[in-house]
Amino acid sequence: MRRPSPLLAALPLAGALVATRAVALPGGGGRCAPLDDLAHAPPREPARGVDEPLAPPPADTASYTWDVRLDPSAHTLEGTGTVTFVNRSCAPLKELWVHLYLNAFKNDQSLFNRDPSGGFRGGNAGDPGSIDVHSWVRTDGESAKDLWKDADLHGVPGDTSDETDARIPLATAIAPGETATFRVNFSSKLPEVVLRTGYAGSFHFAGQWFPKLAVLADDGTFVHFPFRRLSEFYADFGRYDVTIDTPESFVVGAVGLSQGITTEHGRRRERFLAEHVHDFAFAAWDEFVARDETIDGISVHTLAPRGCEAIIGRELAALRTAIPQFRARFGPYPYPNLTVVHPPAAAEEAGGMEYPTLITTGGSCRTPSFLHSPELLTIHEFGHEYFYGLVATNEAAFPWLDEGINSFAQNGALCTEFSCAGSFLDLPFLRVASEAIQGPTSNAFAADISVGSAAASFPTGGHYTFLVYGRVPAIFETFARIYGREKVETLLATWTRRYRFRHPSPDDFYALMGQIYSDSTARTFRAAIDHRGTVDDALRSFHYRRVPRELPAASGLADGRVGDEYRGFVTVARRGDRAIPTTLAVRFEDGSEVRLPLEGGRPEDATGGATLQIPIASRARPTFATLDPDGAMLLDGDRSNDSIRAVSEESGRPTAAKSGAKGTFSRVFSALLAVLGGAG
Question: Which residue among 247, 261, 377, 596 is least crowded, i.e. fewest CB within 10 A of its CB?
């Protein structure tokens, strides 16, 4: 998805029953069977000890055949074709719901344009965009009635201004298991490039350009919603057969595989075919420079402006790392090709986005080699081929399931491509790991809203950016460091195999996590996602006293003394709203160290709020105490109170060891993140 900042994207127990989505059987009168029962046994793709079968390809629900003509002067698309829909629910359908995403840019009254945008990419389109459906006629035996004449374009109750969510009443219900085909005629006006779609000069990127059916739930309802500024997309899988007509001088990059090109009367027609995908987008421009390469058996086709050859080389190098690594971690990429579009500078808003088999990158073609934002963005967008592309979660309702998990997953590929220490910035005097800034930059927002919120619920773009793209991967990275990276990798490897070509929910994720981790650990993780709250473990005091020890005279020693023992307490205040397990390290004058585990908060909700007194007893004088000595905790909002010097009860008050440099580091990169804006 569109990643709100290139910086922020800087992070499995098998054998359970494969979770399924119910599907109606033809003529079943509402009888439903698991989708997997209708497919052949899936192949098995073990990885890193994971023996989870790959979920099979889906039985297509919403398929489209379009013939679309681009007018690059008027920036319009004229489209005709068919929509084929299969009722895979258990109930007859008396209506359809359709997304008209381009109407978000139609006027200043759309919900998109009324939403606050502070801290996120994308303003209002300078030149508006829109989509108009001219007719929607069922062709499989029903009378040739234009259903669109009765369509309600105002899907939001009580709001007559937004036209991005439309309802089509059906003259005849579609029975469970029945297929309905509709002949559709529409026209779209692309906006001046804004937030994933539009034009800049002769460059055109068509995203969300056609009327798209909403996702059908098992109970026969549609998961529909208006298009909001911070939300993205959600659709059922299907087959796309799209012919794109452009001026002959244009080059087109699109979802799917090209089936051939014909030219006539100065026009160019290219047909693309994509199977088992849930979206279709394309770029068309008369100045593209192409480069092709095969990576891990995948045909990679790049399109970029002239002069960007070096950046394309870096992006291809990143894919040489990412494609095989994601295959090993999350299962094979199931498509034969990938198209990478680097938009021109004037079309920056079209960059940093993903569609099945097509991603857009972005950024300056002169980005210095020590700044790895082009590689980060490329790996992030490719990662979305898995998280939302294959595991097709609802991005509007649960953005953490795609953006957050993907931002964690990309970190591993960055560490392979570069050293982990310098995975984002690598200078001789300054090396910055991408994950090192994800937690600290999110702390200022952690108490405001949970990271598991719906996209439209975030009060500002800054909250969305720093929490979804920053705090979620920091939560995953923290759990990897505390409980072991192998468990997190097993969790995500199983998730991506079990739920590919499915629409899983957070409850599915939490249930899977409960199979891999203990119940209390799974609850702690869920609390970190579902509940807002800060983490702030503070060392408040460290007092000790000397206790002389004596042995009886029979020991043979002249005065009976064998030395002193030191006894005391370290006071730990778990001041945040959340408590995550951590470690207390106590050092002694003789160089020894003792490490003590501190568990999370109350097991039922993993809240903080406790103050602990940890007893210390040693033959050596204690000198220092530190929380999280290995830096596993990326969520602590104030690292300056994590260290303290030990003092004798007779000598006065203890002194905290400040970490002001870390606080400054966090503030500097927070400001940089806010400036850089976003990615998908």
Answer: 261
